Amino acid sequence: MDTSEAVFRALLSITLTLAIILLALFPFQEPGSEGRVISIMALSVQGVMIVIATAGLYFGWKPFTFLDEI
């Protein structure tokens, strides 16, 4: 496993874990409250991170190859 794949896998696992925890908190938040708005914004950022990490793994993107040469 090269460095790029390891970074994308770590990013995907951490972000998925945080997204699941955040989704589990939704039933305990009041609709329309400030906390729920922030949770939705955070979930959208996590969704973008999940898409980027998944695309990086699927297409074999190697942006961190310079770290393999060290």
Q: What does this entry look like structurally?
A:
With 70 residues, the chain is mostly helical. It has helices at 3-25, 34-59. Helix 1 (3-25) packs antiparallel against helix 2 (34-59). The model has no long low-confidence stretch (mean pLDDT 94).
Descriptive key words:
70 residues, elongated, mainly alpha, 70% helix
Structural class: mainly alpha
Cα-based radius of gyration, to the nearest Å: 16 Å
Number of helices: 2
Shape: elongated
Sheet having the most strands: none
Q: Quote the distance from N terminus to C terminus.
A: 15 Å
Number of strands: 0
Q: What is the percentage of strand-forming residues? A: under 5%
Could you spell the SSE succession in H and E letters?
Answer: HH
Poorly predicted tracts of residues: none
Rounded mean pLDDT score: 94
Helix content: over 70%
Topology of this protein?
Elements lengths: L2 H23 L8 H26 L11
Helix pairs in contact: 1-2
Provide a concise account of the structure shown.
With 70 residues, the chain is an all-alpha fold.
